[in-house]
Amino acid sequence: MAGIRRRDAFLRVPATTLGRVRDVPIDEVDALDRDVVAIGTTYAPGTHLPAHRHRRAQFLYGVTGSMRVETADGSWTVPPHRAVLVPPGTEHAVLMDGVSTRSLYLDPRAVPWFPHRCRVVEVSPLLRELVCEAVDVEPRYAPHGRDAALLALVLHEIRRCAPLPLDLPLPADPALRALCRDFLARPRIDVRPEAWAAGLHVSVRTLHRRFTAETGTGLATWRRRACALHALPELAAGRPVAEIAADLGYAGPGAFTTMFTQLLGAPPSAFRDPARQPSPAAASASRADSPSSRPVATRARTWSA
């Protein structure tokens, strides 16, 4: 299948401005005789890019918002300021949640070390700046100049990216996959396996056996991981942990935080988006103006025996 052609998904601006490539499908520039093509794109809220594939490998970085990438064998959640590596030729769909991206499309011959399966990675401050600079590079940059050196350094830094455990395997069986997708849309940890077994008309024991055979992980672990990954966009948006935990069916924020930290190796606070958090001054002003911080008139109470 060819690359993205749904141009209505983009907020269109001129394709090139001062040499920059912005908001254009990769198909329009894929033939450039360069190892790296950098494109900056802003997507309308809730944009869904249907299944497609690219000839080039893709480094997809979210400057803002969160993404979920789905392929035939799994789902990857990409919080703000992280990236996902998409191998060349891999069919994938993407759900965007308030996202502005910086994509690097890499000639496969230049990245023989690229993973053969999608991978979410941490993005260092250096790589972040390099990627943002890359979209301002003239597409037909000189092969031996400053821009070529910058993009060569980008490739070295991408190769050094640390992987993050933000993937979730999906079963191939259509009925079981449909249940997984329904759960991903509205996850609750308190939904019992018996409900899934009934939907498949199998015993609970058969459900567990089939699920492990299809995904390589147990159903209980998969569901906990799905809840943790579902929480990432909510955390990035600044939603309180207590509210997220309640929506996911946890008894309290402590139980959710313990599960989250065990699975992802970091507490929920590590996945907050700094750009969406109030400044210390604003937070202080908000607290000062809250009802709990205002003087409260009190009346003497008369206690009866």
State the helix count.
9
**Shape-level CATH architecture of the largest domain:** Sandwich
Largest sheet: 8 strands, antiparallel
Q: Strand-and-helix sequence, N→C?
A: EEEEEEEEEHHEHHHHHHH
The total number of structural domains is 2
CATH superfamily of the largest domain: Regulatory protein AraC
> What is the C-alpha radius of gyration, as a whole number of Å?
23 Å
Describe the 3D structure.
With 305 residues, the protein is an alpha+beta fold. It is built from nine helices and ten strands. The strands form two sheets. Strands 3, 4, 5, 6, 7, 8, 9 and 10 form an eight-stranded antiparallel beta sheet that branches. It has a two-stranded antiparallel ribbon with strand order 1-2. The longest helix has 18 residues, at 219-236. Mean pLDDT is 85; it is low at 1-19 and 279-305.
Write the layout of secondary structure elements.
Layout: E1 16-17, E2 20-21, E3 36-42, E4 48-52, E5 57-71, E6 74-78, E7 82-86, E8 92-106, E9 119-122, H1 125-134, H2 146-159, E10 167-169, H3 174-185, H4 193-200, H5 204-215, H6 219-236, H7 241-247, H8 253-264, H9 280-288
Antiparallel strand pairs: 1-2, 3-8, 4-8, 5-6, 5-7, 5-8, 6-10, 7-9
Helix pairs in contact: 1-2, 7-8
Core attributes:
disordered C terminus; 9 helices; 33% helix; 305 residues; Jelly Rolls; alpha+beta; globular; disordered N terminus; two-stranded antiparallel ribbon; Arc Repressor Mutant, subunit A; 10 strands; 2 domains; 8-stranded antiparallel sheet
Quick recap:
By secondary structure, the protein is an alpha+beta fold. It folds into 2 domains: 7-159, Jelly Rolls, CATH 2.60.120.280; 170-273, Arc Repressor Mutant, subunit A, CATH 1.10.10.
